[in-house]
Write a structure and sequence with these properties.
- Strand 6 (153-156), helix 6 and strand 7 (173-175) form a beta-alpha-beta unit.
- The chain has 2 domains: 5-179 and 351-366, Rossmann fold; 194-349, Rossmann fold, CATH 3.40.50.
- The strands form 2 sheets. A 7-stranded parallel β-sheet has the order 3-2-1-4-5-6-7, sandwiched between helices. Strands 10-9-8-11-12-13 form a 6-stranded parallel β-sheet, sandwiched between helices.
- The protein contains 14 helices and 13 strands.
- By secondary structure, the chain is an alpha/beta fold.
């Protein structure tokens, strides 16, 4: 199997984002195991971010223009139809350029594009990076059921999500978490007085909730600051609120996110919905004590059990509880040290080698 071909697809492979980082990390991990790997993005998303200085995999993008969002005018519909046709033709050409193997679509739209061409001879795996509960509240439930039912396997981030999708009608579900992009040789020094959040600035990520929580405790923790790293549709309102509070610093997304975690004394994930949050995993691997909202089975999977918790969990959307948990960690150095040790030990389960091992077992199973 060492030279088996793997084509890994995502909606786009260019952005600085969690899904993009996951597919680049997996592509590199597969290639380093000896697989012949090509990473394909459906639409371009300039400027293209370079995730590896020397990628061991090939890359291509199917559409010649960025997929137009929002407007549903006749001209936009015509452009979308042309881009969809172009993407399918280029994907068919890519798949025909070598032997058949395994096609993994990391997002639903990628599988919807792929399902429009002849996939004879290919083993297909669909991935979904969100929680079942979030999918059930929107269009993704129907889309995943339709797109992934014909697949050889449908991969979800946690056993709880895989079981929920099975109960919803999929009979090919597998639980397989995303990998960490890197593993720090040593935990960060426990001397920082910075509370940090690395996130997209959008409603579901709860950054506004974190700012309100900070406003409740800022006067009680005068030697600490809050660092917000990210961008997104709520950036202007978040900047406006942050400017009205003491001790808030903002930073644009950075390519080397490990440098951010090295600055933190406490990490906060204030999300209202998540899958298996990569930023929380990275904070844990870095040995940063963390507070997270109990917003998904993925967060609970990372947090571990009550007897040996790796993350301080608070109810989703409860701003006073979030504020209290942050203040508690700021004031209790012993608790921070305990969480940091537990978190780093827990995060070892999500190293790239361990996750690629699980993928290889899945490939062997669907090849039978």
């Amino acid at each position: 199997m060492s030279h088996q071909r793997i084509v890994l697809m995502a909606n786009n492979i260019d952005e600085v984002g969690g899904a993009q980082r996951v597919v680049h990390v997996l592509a590199q991990g597969f290639a380093e195991r000896g697989f012949d790997v090509e990473l394909i993005g459906v639409t371009p998303q300039p400027p293209a971010h370079e995730y590896h200085e020397a990628p061991a995999y090939r890359r291509r993008v199917l559409m010649s223009e960025v997929w137009p969002a929002g407007d549903s005018s006749a001209a936009v519909k015509e452009l979308r139809s042309r881009l969809r046709t172009e993407a399918r033709a280029k994907l068919a050409e890519a798949l025909a350029s070598g032997p058949s193997g395994v096609l993994i679509t990391a997002q639903v739209w990628a599988m919807e594009i792929a399902s429009g061409i002849d996939l004879t001879g290919w083993r297909t795996i669909g991935q979904y990076h969100g929680a079942f509960a979030a999918a059930a509240q929107g269009r993704d439930l129907r889309r995943v059921l339709e797109a992934y039912s014909p697949c050889d396997a449908s991969v979800f981030l946690t056993p709880v999500d895989a079981q929920a999708w099975q109960q919803a009608g999929l009979n090919n579900t597998v639980a397989l978490p995303n990998p960490l992009a890197w593993w720090p040789d040593h935990p960060v020094a426990a001397t920082s007085r910075t509370v940090g959040c690395v996130s997209r600035f959008s409603e579901e990520k709860g950054v506004q909730d974190l700012l309100e929580a900070w406003s409740l405790i800022v006067d009680e923790v005068p030697t600490w600051e809050l660092l917000l790293v990210g961008n997104g549709p709520q950036e202007s309102s978040i900047r406006e609120r942050a400017a009205a509070l003491r001790g808030v610093r903002m930073m644009a997304p950075v390519a080397d996110v490990s440098s951010v975690f090295s600055e933190l004394g406490v990490f906060v994930l204030p999300s209202r919905t998540e899958g298996l949050p990569l930023a929380l995993m990275e904070a844990m691997a870095s040995g940063v004590p963390s507070v997270a909202t109990d917003c998904s089975s993925g967060v609970r999977l990372l947090a571990g059990g009550d007897l040996n918790p790796a993350v301080e969990l608070v109810p989703r959307g409860d701003i006073p509880d979030l504020a209290s948990a942050i203040r508690f960690l700021i004031e209790d150095e012993q608790r921070r040290e305990q969480l940091a040790r537990n978190a780093r030990e827990r995060a070892q389960e999500f190293t790239l080698d361990r996750i690629v091992d699980q993928w290889e077992r899945l490939f062997s199973r669907i090849d039978r």
